[in-house]
Amino acid sequence: MHDLRMPLLGLGAWLGGIAAVALPGWSVALLVVGSLGLARFRRSWPLLAAALAGIAVLGIAALRGAVVEHGAAAELVAARAVVDARVSITSDPRAVEGRFGDFVVVAATVTELTGRGSTYSLAAPVVLLADESWLEVELGSTVRASGRLAPDEGVGAPVLAVLSTRGPPVLESGPDVWWRGATAVRASIRESVASRGEHARELVPSLVVGDDSGLDPDLADDFRTTGLTHLLAVSGTNLTLLVGFLLILARWCGLRGRWLYAAAALGIVGFVLIARTEPSVVRAAAMGSVALVGLGANGRERGTRCLGAAVLALLLVDPALAVTPGFALSVLATGGILFLAPTWRDALRGWLPRWAAEAVSVPLAAQVACTPVVTAISGEISLVAVVANLLAAPAVAPATVLGLAGGLVGLVWPPLGQVVAAPAAWSVSWIVVVAQRGAALPTPAVDWGTGATSLAAVTALCVLLGLVAPRLLRSPTSVIGLSLLLVVAVLSRPPSLGWPADGWVLAMCDVGQGDALALNAGAGSAVVVDAGPDPALVDGCLDRLGVTRLPLVVLTHFHADHVDGLAGVLDGRDVGEVSVTSLADPVEGAEQVTRELGELGRRPAVAVHGLTRRVGDVTIQTLWPPAEAPSAVKGAGDGANDASVVLLAEVRGVRLLLTGDLEPPGQLALRRTLGDITVDVLKVPHHGSPHQDEAFLAGLGARLALVSVGADNDYGHPDSDLLAALEATGAQVRRSDLDGDVLVLATPDGIAVRTRD
Fold first, then answer.
1. 3-class DSSP string for 657-674
2. Which of 288, 299, 375, 400 is nearest to 333 (CA)?
3. Nearest C-alpha neighbor of 610 from the set 627, 593, 587
4. Model's pTM, two decimal places?
5. To the nearest whole percent, how much of the chain has pLDDT over 70?
6. Around Cβ 728, how many Cβ atoms within 10 Å?
7. Residues 106, 525: Cα–Cα separation, whole Å
């Protein structure tokens, strides 16, 4: 039996933090009164202590909120005043792509604020939005900046304000020696693997200190699919490995007793400095310390007590952690290892050696405990996560420890640092193979959804599995049978029940903020128009449709939201011609398409204006751009939309107009060219942008208007006035952000719609 008093304190604090963020004030008051009444009525001191812990976290959160909303500088924030500020930099600058250009994001603590004739001394967190001149600002520096304040809406962290700065920072003082040392170690780690392959250059720093800047997005997707994402961020595993290795060295050097505790404390502080003192790092350090305690004598009992104490301490320092996914994953993974893994290991030891039983039970317990939260984030359940973690585990320790060792040695002699870090690069290469091969399996994960019912169901399944797992694991027959069943599931592609529906002619794939359409050419064959921004999303959509052959792929223009998913379209399918617009703008997108097709020995063909062809059950005609349109431009994509390939298609008697991102000038020219043309289905141009030639769209007489658009996008798509205008013509409007994948069906009465949301 576990001593649950400290875990109860941690749970009470966690519930208090959730209540502070998620519930209105009157609900919080009722919760406080109810918790105290229940605990006192039952005369349970542990429950009373847990209620008090929750109230303490609630109180701290309320005080912080009051400081932000009613503090000395609150009026300046509410008025969006222009101010001068002295700030201490608390994060590395990070370049971000924005709608209107790139900008730099920096976290800082403001210590002095001057605006509207008053100067305030304070210590409050802010987020700086700056230009590229801030990229060289070092963490730990104190600088002066001027700009406009704004509330922290959408920042995702409890801060006083967002400060949009003007011009470069004015340095008042540089970072202290420990920050300079930590920065030097981080740079040395990267330098020690700089001569290795692309993945090693990025993954070794990520494994050691969570420095994942520049990581290949496709590889990050593979890690997510195979349940290895925790290796890309600072986690308790990093600290456990590094500090554990430090303790081994300390023992070799003769340290014992309290000196070992001092060495561990020094290692923890050093880890936090190198990985940066951000909330995620502090949280990882706390959970890693709990794991270290769990490895010691009587570790199970001491570990559970320390877990409760760590949760309580973290939430008293920062109540906002209670609703962050990283915090939940760390706590649940550590709790799973402490509470579930020992029992499951003992069940397996009846027929497996101890080392094998532990190798299976630890990742399995952590995965089961974290599955509800992972599902809430990703909407899917990984089927290969446990096996992938088992295969990757032997390489994690050498990659982490030797990566740091290479960086430390490199500070003294860089060539020797590269030699020391070489095995780390080799280890990372193996982890990459596991992630890529696992993600390439036919069914590495299953879509589950993120609705309340779906999450309740997966939580109930995980609880049930936690209860019955010891009995199942005790029998080799049940374990082998379930393993074989899992292998069959992973190696086959189960059909989506009732999907696709019979008679479908067009599928609008939900690929986020982008376009990806499929025209049914018959018998597993389709004409694909655009590839969306994400290879995994469009690949999954085509898999669900059962599409294995693509006699024609059309990329309407070279913007990323139409071509970045091309690799997913091509993956594992028999592909014929790939047709593109005549305007190679933006140049980067055109070069990417040429490069990806070149790897398959193909070249893109320019769509021929006026050409009509039949592809299986699809008859398709190219209406735009005109033959005299320019074929090349040195630009950033400003003219690409009006060079979109516009297609008129007919499938089983259903007429469809596919417009890419055509803008009003192009729509007007097309209207003049086509005259009175009518269609059944309109793919609305440019994701429902407000900039449309409404006379052109209304004159098409479409009965169905499809809007391919990403949920919660920051472009304001689709425009509500445009949707109202389309509906006023009698058209039914369907949107991928609300409906998911959308099928257009040919019926005896005309057309019908089926959605997969």
1. EECCCCCHHHHHHHHHHH
2. 288
3. 627
4. 0.70
5. 91
6. 10
7. 49
